[in-house]
Amino acid sequence: MFIEVLKSILYGILEGITEWLPVSSTGHLILLEELLPLNVAPELGAEFAEEYFSMFEVVIQLGAILAVVVMFFGKLNPFAPSKNKEQKRWTWVLWGKVLVASVPAAFIGIVLDKVIEKLSGKDIDGWIYNWQTVAAALIIYGVLFIVIERIHRGKECRVNTTDDISFSQAALIGCFQALSIVPGTSRSGSTILGSRCIGISRSAAAEFSFFMGIPAMAGASLIKGYSFIDYVFEMGVAVPASAWVMLAVASVVAFAVSMAAIKFLMDFVKRHSFAPFGVYRIILGILVAAYFVMR
After folding, report:
1. For labeling, which of 10, 130, 244, 282 is most exposed (least CB within 10 Å)?
2. Is 0.90 surpassed by the pTM of this model?
3. Any residues with CB less than 8 A from the CB of 132 and at least 6 apart, and which?
4. Which tops the pLDDT comparison, 200 or 122?
5. Percent helix, strand and coil across the chain, each rounded to 5?
6. What is the distance between the alpha carbons of residues 30 and 131, in angstroms, rounded to a whole number?
7. Nearest by Cα to 263 from 20, 10, 12, 13
8. What is the pLDDT of residues 143-158, one digit of tens each?
């Protein structure tokens, strides 16, 4: 149990760092799962372990989401007594943009996913969740980050704050977020890359990506959590207390580390471009491919 809790801490640290930096949490979790798989209730079999981890790696995002809510609570709270009527209105407008940006990913992740599963017998993850896709996405997006940052070098941004993002731009960024259904692309990586393509500043792109993560990750966590509970009741198995402890520990750690990761990224983009993350993604993609080929 002690060893598994330590592993959970590592998973929480990794989630807290990679969820907000545009480097793909999936790519990192795949490697960590290979090197340090969670040993959850082995007496319940491999199927239970697979279902549990599928839920675990998504639900711990709730800790990361909470970090965004806490850090930007003043800006995101439309009921703050310190805000005047106009400021409250702009807060509701911001939430409207976030919801508009969430529609494409929600459509693909819920509706299209079910259609594909019904027609082919496998959901989207069943078709594309593999190391080849992850490695390719890491490298391709890494190259794109370097290219886009080079194209925009020295150019004045058309949008410098999240308040200046229009509803049409929010919808377009949402289409980029929908691309993150491909493992290895990174949700934050897709939204930031999309924002930079349409002339949004680095700080505004990162901040809006954080806000978009709230409904996207909360929705994914609820769906995965419900799916796991449904599986547990259907199979009639009892989830051991240790499994819930591991989930709670990883979520708390993800929250704490996310606070630091978000602050780091907001400070970083004020002085640097996203190009270093592109280089890192290329290296990680090569490592993922090399590991699985050699294995």
Report:
1. 244
2. no
3. 289
4. 200
5. 80, 0, 20
6. 8
7. 20
8. 999 999 888 887 788 8
